[in-house]
Every structure is written in C-alpha cells, then in structure tokens.
Amino acid sequence: MAKLSGQRGKKRMKWRIGEVTVTKVVEMEVTGGSRFILPQATYEEILPITWLQPHFADERGRLKMSIHALVVEAPGRRIVVDTCLGNDKEGRRIPTWNNLQLPFLSDLAAAGFARESIDTVLCTHLHVDHVGWNTMLDGGTWVPTFPKARYLMGRIEFAHWRGQHEREDMAAVFADSVKPVADAGLVDLVETDHRICDEISLVPTVGHTPGHVSVVIKSRGEEALITGDFMHHPCQIAHPEWCSTADSDPETGRRTRERMLAELASRPVLVIGTHFAGATAGRIVKDGDAYRMDV
Ligand SMILES: [Zn+2]
Predict the structure, then answer these.
(1) Among 2, 4, 18, 30, which has the highest number of CB atoms less than 10 A from its own CB?
(2) Ligand 1 centroid vs 229 CA: distance in angstroms?
C-alpha cells in the first residue's frame, strides 16, 4: 500500500536559473505502489540502477514519486506549473486520490505564494494530477483557485479532453477541474511552442498526451527544463524505452524521450522533474547506451 509523507511543505525546494526562481511545493509523496504506471520497473530492474537511490528509489527497489507544483518567478511574473490533484475531488480512478484533504494551499501560502498573487497557471497537459488545484470547492461549487490568473492550456490538449466521453473518470476531471475555469473566462488556449515571457516558453513533448508540453526556462545564459510527464520517473532516463501506462501514444512518447534526453545531455540544462521525488532536479549525462541524472 502506498504511504503518504512529507505533505507539510517541509520538502520545499528552490532553484535559480539566472533571474528566474523555481520553487517546489509538494502535495503528496509516495513510495511504492507505482507499478501500475511503469510496469517494467520491477524491483529487480530498479535495484541495479544505483544512482536512483536514495532520492528516486528505496533500498528495496520501490519507486519514490512526488506530486508537486512548481512556482516559477520571472521578473514581474508568478506562474504555477501544474496543479496536482486538489482537494474534495471525486470520481477518480485511483481510490486514494478521491476526497483529499491536504494542506496544499496553506503550504503554497507559507512558501510565500498566496493564491491571489499568481498571475499565470500552466498545465503541461490535462491529466488528473496536473489540473486538480485549478479549482476548489466553495459552497458546493467549483471555483477557480487562482482568481487573478490566466490559465494557459494547450489548444490541442483542451480539444482532446473536451471531446473525451469514453472514460468516466477523465470526464469527471474535465468537468470539475477544467471546465469551471474555462466557463469563468480565465483560459487562454495556446500552441505547443507558446512563449509566456522573455525567459519562459513551451516546447512540444507529445506522446504522453496529444498536446503535452514541457517548459523551457532561459535566463542570463542558464537553462532549465520542467519535464511534465514525458518522463514520469528518473528510471526512464536509464530506460528511455519504458513507457508509462498513461501514455496515449507510447511509441511517440518513447521517441520524444529519446530525442529530449539526447538534447538535454548535449548541454548543461537543469532538468526539473514534475513527478521526481527527493532532489527532483539534476543534469542528464550519457551513461553507456542510455543516460543517468546527476543531482
Ligand atoms: Zn500525465
């Protein structure tokens, strides 16, 4: 059974990229129980990848994963990248993701980010664990959590999920976490290479979902990349061929991973993982036929 830990904002972390600051605010961390998302990541496969310990796997080979938001501060801007699971949500496929009552918003405020102070929300894609805090329950109604923000969502991504009626759980996510902000007039649909400001732009990393994006940060000669879910866990740096069960197009996802890892290993880029636990960020380096991450 998955264990929850570290929700009280103690795992807050900050990185600087030139004039830009990125702060991690954790909603939930889990050790084990992630086989459903990466079936090839058995204990026997994970244990020999020694660099995964202690941040990304434990001594038994169980994967550690994190659900967190990343607050990106650029001159004059305050952007939340991905909004986790959210509280009070129902109809989620994973039982422990229903009706959460976690202190995420108070942790966000304690980190210095009152929700009214956020000017932009960016969802790398519209999966359940990336849109949850787009909304919060207020008197029985879902209202935008960040009332002064523009919510940036991919045009392709939005169209895909709006038209998805086959899976009830995904329809519930759209209904309670995406539609209310669109109805409030706060959504800007953007292309997969959209530029948010001088320092921050999007880059397409499709395969996990049809309109998936990652976030590129460049400032004063320094560079970082927020992954989104083109990699769920650092074990996919050692095994780029391992696909997540949540990938809508696994073959495209694998090609995206191989292309991105080759690119990222070619120059110094701080890679900040959207579900990477512990140290969360590091540099990709070539390691035999594949890669590793130096934290
Ligand atoms: Zn996802």
Answers:
(1) 30
(2) 5
Neighbours of ion ligand 1 (CB under 5 A): 127, 229
Q: Which two tokens stand for residue 192?
A: 């997969």
Strands (E), 75-125: 77-81, 120-122
- Rounded to the nearest angstrom, the distance between the alpha carbon of 279 and the centre of ligand 1 is 20
Ligand 1 mean position, distance from CA 248 (Å): 9
**Spacing, Cα 86 to ligand 1 middle (Å):** 15
For 263-277, write each residue's pLDDT tens digit: 999 999 999 999 999
Contact 76, 32 (CB under 8 A): no
Ligand 1 centroid from CA 246, angstroms: 6
Alpha carbon of 220 to ligand 1 centroid (Å): 31
Q: What angle do CA 32, 1, 65 make, to 5 degrees?
A: 30
How far away, in angstroms, is 129 Cα from ligand 1 center? 7
125 CA distance to ligand 1 centroid (A)? 7
Q: What is the dihedral of CA 251, 255, 256, 260, to 10 degrees?
A: 160
Per-residue pLDDT tens digits for 99-118: 999 999 999 999 999 999 99
Task: State yes or no: pLDDT of 47 exceeds 50.
Answer: yes
Helix H or strand E segment including 213: strand 213-219
Q: Is 230 exposed, middle or buried (0-12, 13-18, 19+ CB in 10 A)?
A: buried
CA distance 20 to 16: 6
Can you name the residues that pair with 21 across neighbouring β-strands?
16, 73
